[in-house]
Amino acid sequence: MRIGPEDVLLAVRAADKESLLRHLARHAAGRIGEDAEAILARLAAREALGSTGIGRGTAMPHARLPGLARPFCCFCRLQRPIPFAAIDDAPVDLAVLVLTPAAADSAHLALLAAAARRLRDPAICTQLRQSVEHDAISRLMSH
User: For the segment 87-130, what is each residue's pLDDT rounded down to a tens digit?
Assistant: First the structure.
């Protein structure tokens, strides 16, 4: 997984899950040249299947997009935790967005696994919550 410093979003203000997903969709749209509403619709459809909140304040919203040329990931740290219907009911303050081409089954699963490994590591999450450096967070998420 590669998340560049330009795709590290810090102190994001979101009132709820929908506003976070909208923020992530807008950011992704600007970076990959896709329609923000189409991305948001895919993310919302995935959330309708079950929350992508994986516990301990973390979430991995993800979707497969037809026409997407290559995977896209970004990291988001919220200014304040929000309700996300996570598996442990804890509010979310860290999120990793994963978008992949519609047919990229193995790439999609590999990216989700890589993001989950990082977000399940308490030491990494502590660093993600404390760092103010986009480059440092990029390195943490990309290794």
Answer: 999 999 999 999 999 987 888 899 999 999 999 999 999 999 99
Question: Residue 99 is part of which domain span?
Answer: 5-142
pTM score, two decimals?
0.96
| Residue at token pair 């929908």 | 18
| DSSP of 64-114 | EETT--S-EEEEEEEEEEE----TT-PPEEEEEEEEEETT-HHHHHHHHHH
What is d(CA 51, CA 33) in angstroms, rounded to the nearest whole number? 26
The label of the residue with tokens 């404390």 reads 130
pLDDT at 143 over 80: no
Q: Is 108 one of the catalytic residues? A: no
What is the tally of structural domains in the chain? Answer: 1
Residue in 23, 27, 62, 108 annotated catalytic: 62
CATH at residue 22: 3.40.930.10
